[in-house]
Amino acid sequence: MPYPLFVSQGLPNAPVVDGAGQAGTTLAVRGLTPNYSFREGWWLSIESATGQHFLHNVAAGGIASSGGSAQLSIWPPLRRPFADGDKVHLGKPMIEGLPEGDETSWQIPVNGLVAVAVTIREQA
After folding, report:
1. Cβ contact 31:14 at 8 Å
2. pLDDT tens, 80-110?
3. Residue 29 above 90 pLDDT?
C-alpha cells in the first residue's frame, strides 16, 4: 500500500538503482529529474524484480546531478542486494508487510483528528 506522505516529494521522474550489489546506507540511483532536490526525512521504497517493496528514509538531503543521478543516504541500511535497474519509488513510496502484535492505539488531539498507530513488520 502507498506510504502516507505529509508533504509532496516533487516529481522525481522514474529513478532506478544504479549498479547491482549495493550495501549499507548509501544508494546510488539514476533516472531522476535533472537537479531534483530531495530532503532529509523523505521516504522511498525500492521495488525488487519480484515486485516486493522495501521502505527506507532519506537520511540526508541533496540534489541530483544534471544527468539525473544521485547518491542517497538512507536508513535503515539496505536489507538485500538489489539489481541494477530495480525501481526506486520517491513520488509514491510503498510499504509492504503485516501488522505486528494485537495492540492498536489511538488518540483524539485537540484539533479533532483521530491518530491511529499500527506497527508493520516488513516481509523480507
Report:
1. yes
2. 899 999 999 999 999 887 666 666 666 666 7
3. yes
* Cα Rg of the chain, angstroms: 16
Burial of 4: CB neighbours in 10 Å, binned 0-12, 13-18, 19+: exposed
Alpha-carbon distance of 15 to 69, in angstroms, equals 8
Between 24 and 117, residue with greater pLDDT: 24
Nearest residue to 15 (alpha-carbon basis) of 86, 81, 77, 80: 86
Read off the pLDDT of each residue in 46-70 and give the average, rounded to a whole number: 95
